Structures are given as structure tokens and as C-alpha cells.
Amino acid sequence: MPAQLISGREIAATIRSDLAERVARLKADTGRVPGLATVLVGEDPASQSYVRMKNSAAKEAGIHSEQITLPADTPEAELLGLVAGLNANPDIHGILVQLPLPGQIDEQKVLEAIDPAKDVDGFHPVNVGKLSTGATDVLAPCTPWGVIQMLLRTGNSPRGKHCVVVGRSNIVGRPMASLLLRRGEGGDATVTVAHSRTPDLGAITRQADILIVAVGRPDTVTADMVRPGAVVIDVGVNRVDAPDTDRGYRLVGDVDFDGVREVASWITPVPGGVGPMTITMLLSNTVDAFERSLER
Ligand code: NDP
């Protein structure tokens, strides 16, 4: 029997409607709503479209959202000044600086300037450090945090399972491993992390009860590399040529979907899998950051 599909679209819609209710309740209780500021430097079309999507999703959930767009030649000091202003703004609880930034700006410096309590992307070293030491009161990076929600909401708790993560980036692979390793709900897994220097990838991935692939290369994982009955989460998004389509390309993940779905018990499609979860967890982090600000 082919694997059951894990629909990120459906899970994201459920979480967003729960978030909208939470925001409405908070508004009734406090007279205030969570605020998200997105900062875009330059005119990269992909970044523009991500930021637009993030803003409209925030508005739909009842979150106050401000989009700040700066010209591509903005000096670093000006951006740092803007971030300082947002840190001090009591109506803003989440700050997102869209990456990549133009060359004259040191990305790490900007990420480190964001108040960790407002760091809804979870990239500030304080949040990275807290997460890797197992803290639960932390804003976690949105993509791996979304993967955890997908697992929990399909009854595939990582607890006690062997989870293999392929990829060790700061955005996906590493925080994914930290989340799976954390004590408590969504964690408590035995975790192996593989990467480009792993000699026999299949020998490692075949051990996985839950296999999470974040590489950025189509067909990195094929059916022979998956243990029968495993849960497979495909984070990858790759464009492949498709001259027969209007756009001339189609999106595929890192996993050979058609082959692997015959072996796995659950699998995420691309598109419609992990993708829709990322923005949803950004909204969730913004609401969490707002609630924590009320407690302080
Ligand atoms: P990076 O390029 O930063 O990291 C890729 C990782 O894969 C690296 O750790 C690399 O190893 C490893 N790798 C590369 N080739 C191999 C191989 N042949 N075998 C095993 N491991 C390999 O990418 P990201 O983590 O940022 O993104 C990964 C994918 O996920 C991309 O397709 C990206 O588009 C997608 N993505 C999707 C998101 C979503 O919302 N759905 C969000 C973020 C990313 P090494 O460290 O040794 O170089």
C-alpha cells in the first residue's frame, strides 16, 4: 500500500485557524494584538514574494503586520538603526529581516542586533544556543519547528524513534536535530545527522524510523535507501526543467517521491508538504513572542 500523504497545506490551515482564534482571544483580554515587522532590503523578486506572503498570512490571522522596504544600497548602520527602533517598539513582537542581504551588509551582525525575544526566525545566537542546550522557552527556526508539528499532528511522535536528518545547515538540519533531541513533546528521539561527507548515506538512512531530508538536490533519497514503513519528510525544494509546463519548470523535493511512497508509511509531497508550514510557524512564533511579552 502506498504511503499516506502528510498534507502540510491541511495542517497549516488548521494551525492558522487556531492561531486566529488565539489572537482574537488575546485581543479581547488585553486590547492588543501581536505585531510582526518584516524588513526587506533590495528588490530580489523571490524575497519580495516571500515577504508579501508572510504579511498577508499575518493579517489573515489578525496579527498586526508592518512591511519595511529599503533600497538595495542601504548602509549597514541604517539597517541596524531600524532594527534598534523595532526592538524598542512596544507594538512589535516579532522582527524578521529577509535574507539574503546585499553585500555591503554583514548578515550575522544584523541577526545579532535583533532582540532575542523578538527573533521570530530563531536565528539569533542566544536562541540557537538555548535550543541546542535543550531549552523549551525558545523561539525555534520555523522550518524544523513546522516539521515537528507535522509529525505530532499525524500521530508520528519522534519519542523513542531513530530520526535521521540529512543536512546540517543552520536553517534546517542543525535546529531540526536539536528539536528532535530535546526532552519532552516533539523530542526525545535518538538522532543521527548525515551530510555531504557521510560515506554511505543509504546505510544510515535505512536505519531511520523517521527520515528528514534537507539537502537541496533532487533524488538524494531513493526507495532503496528507505526502511519499509518509515516516515519520510522531504524539506527540499528544487526547480527541475519541465518544458511542457507554462512556467518551464516544476518543483520537486530531495526525495524520489514516486519510488519512496511505495516503501514509506507516511510521506510529505513537494509542493504542499513542509513549505506551507514554514510561514505558519512564523505566525505561531509571533503569537508566542507576544504572549511572553505579556508575562514579562
Ligand atoms: P544548505 O545548502 O544550507 O544545506 C544543505 C545540506 O545538505 C548541507 O549540510 C550539505 O552538507 C548537505 N548535503 C549536500 N549534498 C549532500 C549529499 N549528497 N548527501 C548528503 N548530504 C548532502 O541548504 P538548506 O538546509 O538551507 O536547505 C535544504 C533544502 O531545503 C533546499 O532545497 C531548500 O530550498 C529547502 N528549504 C525548504 C524550506 C521550506 O520552507 N520548505 C525552508 C528552507 C529550506 P555539507 O554541510 O557537508 O555541505
UniProtKB/TrEMBL annotation:
State if Oxidoreductase is listed as a keyword. Answer: yes
Q: Which Pfam families match?
A: THF_DHG_CYH, THF_DHG_CYH_C
Record-annotated Tetrahydrofolate dehydrogenase/cyclohydrolase catalytic domain positions: 6-121
Gene3D superfamilies from the xrefs?
Answer: Leucine Dehydrogenase, chain A, domain 1 (3.40.50.10860), NAD(P)-binding Rossmann-like Domain (3.40.50.720)
Q: Which InterPro entries match?
A: Aminoacid_DH-like_N_sf, NAD(P)-bd_dom_sf, THF_DH/CycHdrlase, THF_DH/CycHdrlase_cat_dom, THF_DH/CycHdrlase_CS, THF_DH/CycHdrlase_NAD-bd_dom
Q: Which domain of life is it from?
A: Bacteria
Q: Ranges for the Tetrahydrofolate dehydrogenase/cyclohydrolase NAD(P)-binding domain? A: 141-292
Catalysed conversion reaction: (6R)-5,10-methylene-5,6,7,8-tetrahydrofolate + NADP(+) = (6R)-5,10-methenyltetrahydrofolate + NADPH; (6R)-5,10-methenyltetrahydrofolate + H2O = (6R)-10-formyltetrahydrofolate + H(+)
In short, the EC number is: 1.5.1.5, 3.5.4.9
Binding annotation for NADP(+): 167-169, 237
Pathway per the UniProt entry = One-carbon metabolism; tetrahydrofolate interconversion
**Keywords from the UniProt entry:** Amino-acid biosynthesis, Histidine biosynthesis, Hydrolase, Methionine biosynthesis, Multifunctional enzyme, NADP, One-carbon metabolism, Oxidoreductase, Purine biosynthesis
Q: Has keyword Oxidoreductase?
A: yes
Q: Which PANTHER family match?
A: C-1-TETRAHYDROFOLATE SYNTHASE, CYTOPLASMIC, C-1-TETRAHYDROFOLATE SYNTHASE, CYTOPLASMIC-RELATED
**Protein function:** Catalyzes the oxidation of 5,10-methylenetetrahydrofolate to 5,10-methenyltetrahydrofolate and then the hydrolysis of 5,10-methenyltetrahydrofolate to 10-formyltetrahydrofolate.
Q: How does it assemble?
A: Homodimer.
Q: Which family does it belong to?
A: Belongs to the tetrahydrofolate dehydrogenase/cyclohydrolase family.
Q: What is this protein called?
A: Bifunctional protein FolD
Annotated source species? Gaopeijia maritima
Q: Which gene is annotated as encoding this protein in its UniProt record? A: folD
